[in-house]
Amino acid sequence: MDIPLEKKRFDTKKILMITGGVLILALIIYVFISTSGASRLNVEKERISIATAQEKAFQENIPVNGVVLPITTIYLDALEGGRVEEKYVEDGAVMKKGEPILRLSNTDLELSLVNQETQVYNLLTQMQISQNNARQNTISKLNQYTDVESSLTEAKRLYELNKRLYEKGAIGKQDFIKSENDYNYQKERMKLSKQILKQDSLSTKQETQQAQSSYARTQNALALMRQKVNDLVVRAPVDGQLTSLDAEIGESKSKGERLGQLDVLSGFKVRVDVDEHYISRIYTGQTGSFPFNGKRYSLTIKKVYTQVNNGRFQVDMEFNDGAPEGIRRGQTVQMRIALSDEKQALLIPKGGFFQETGGNWIFKVNENGDKAYKTDITLGNQNTEYYEVLSGLQPGDKVITSSYDNYGDIQELVLKE
Q1: What is the pLDDT of residues 57-89, one digit of tens each?
Q2: Per residue in 283-306, pLDDT tens?
Q3: pTM over 0.85
Q4: Check: CATH 2.40.420.20 for 41-58+343-416?
Q5: Which of 79, 173, 212, 269 is surrounded by the fewest CB atoms within 10 Å?
Q6: What class is the 73-104+232-253 domain?
Q7: Rounded to whole angstroms, how far apart are CA atoms 404 and 49?
């Protein structure tokens, strides 16, 4: 007799299917819970920086480093080449205008001066000889003129006498004609003598002018040569302090070679290095400032050097109200250059959040101060202390400005005391 078997309600296959379904459901629930928890992070308030968005005066500026330099620097170059024979002062000496610094020697130049002087003396001697000859020639012509004048006077007297005698029949016609011809001859001689004297005077004057002009040119050349020899003694062109003197006794210096420089001590300027990114926004007349001994000093850009080296260009800035006492040449100062006029704007302090967000969003704290939410913002210009907020925040809003390095994709921060 067959025994009926009881049918099992759950076989092994069904059990495995139910177990698998439960595991999948548990996994879904776990992922959901895990994902929901990842968008929220507990943060201690003492580990973050919270700032308030404020509306106040704002001016865009950039931080730069500058070096204090004399207001004017005169470079000393060798006007003539030569060997350093003597140094009158050392580097760092305070000089008065015209005081000697060093002396060079140049035998070729000195020999040229001697030859030039000899040439001038020879020319002067030749001029004196020429003038004496011209003077003797003029005297001779004047003597000839005197003789002609005397002969004319005598011929005129004889002609007039013979004319009266001939009219009275006391002499013959032949004697009268002879005296008349002689008188006319002497008159022509007189005309010729006057022309000769006139031409002699013009010729003498012209020769004298030419000689004087030649002598003046030679004298100028001699004066120039003497100046070149005098330039072998290098002198201070202005009052100032001698710096960077590069010359040793016995050393040869070429014409135009740099010997040193003279710093004018009447004032100072600051030469500033600026990033090439701002080259289109820097121009003369812009201002900057830096603190020194508890006081802030203002400067104005006077010159912009547009040549870029290693990603930077330079500007010269001069003090508006005089340089501070105690500042020294070569001293480095940290300053700010203003890039815009002052205006009212909504501002938040600068902080580490910008490196992570690029200024596109920020964590804004709620009114209770216990949570902070990710909020989109738009930033404008900046200076050394603040960012300008264009949108996304209102005055009085509190935001977290410290670094967001550990926040990842967190959407909400829970702020713990």
Answers
A1: 998 888 999 999 998 888 999 888 889 999 999
A2: 999 999 999 988 999 999 999 998
A3: no
A4: yes
A5: 173
A6: mainly beta
A7: 11
